[in-house]
Amino acid sequence: MVFQKEAYALSAGIHLPNSTRKKMLKIKILVALIILTANNGNCQNKAYDDKTEIHKSVAKILRKEGTKFSVLGTTKKNIFSNFAFSEGGGGLDTSPNRPWNKKEWIGFVKSIDTSAITNYSLNIHKTSQKHAENELIFAPIIFSKENDKALCIWELHSVSSGSGQVAAWYYEKEKEKWILKGSQIVSISD
Q1: What is the pTM of this model?
Q2: Rounded to whole angstroms, how far apart are CA atoms 127 and 125?
Q3: 146-164, pLDDT tens digit by residue?
C-alpha cells in the first residue's frame, strides 16, 4: 500500500520526488534479483536431478550384477586422474559404434576442463549397504553444454584388499531420460 500512490502517479505521468523514485527502483531491483535467484535454483535442481538419476542408475546396474558396496557420500574429482581426457577418452575397444570412438563424444571429452569441476554431495545414501566389502566412489558427473551427454566416472574400491577398478560410463539423454550407451574399464589396481 505504501507505493500504491506512487505507482498511480507514475502511470498518470505525475513527477515524483527523487527519493521516492529511488525507493521504487530499489524494489524493482530486489524483485528482479528474487526472480533470477528462483530461476537459477530451478536450473540447479534439474542438474541435481540428472546427477541423481545417473548415480542411481550406476548403483542399480552394479547391484543387479551382484556387487555389494556402500556409496561414499560425496564425489571425488581425483578419480579423473585415471581418465585420458586429452585423448578423448578412447579405450582399447576400437569398435566404431562405441561412444568413446564416436567423433561427437571425442570432441566433448577433449573439451572438458576438470579444473573447473567441483565435488558435490550425493543423494543416494539410502541405497548404501553397511559392512559392504566394496566402496563405490563417484567422480563428479560431467554434462555436455547441450545437456544431451553425460560422462560418469566411478571407482569400485575393495575395503579389505585395497584393489579396485575405475570405469567410465557414457550416458545420452533420450526423451528426458538418461540411457547408458557404453561403458569401459579405465584402470585396474591390485
Answers
A1: 0.72
A2: 5
A3: 999 999 999 998 888 888 9
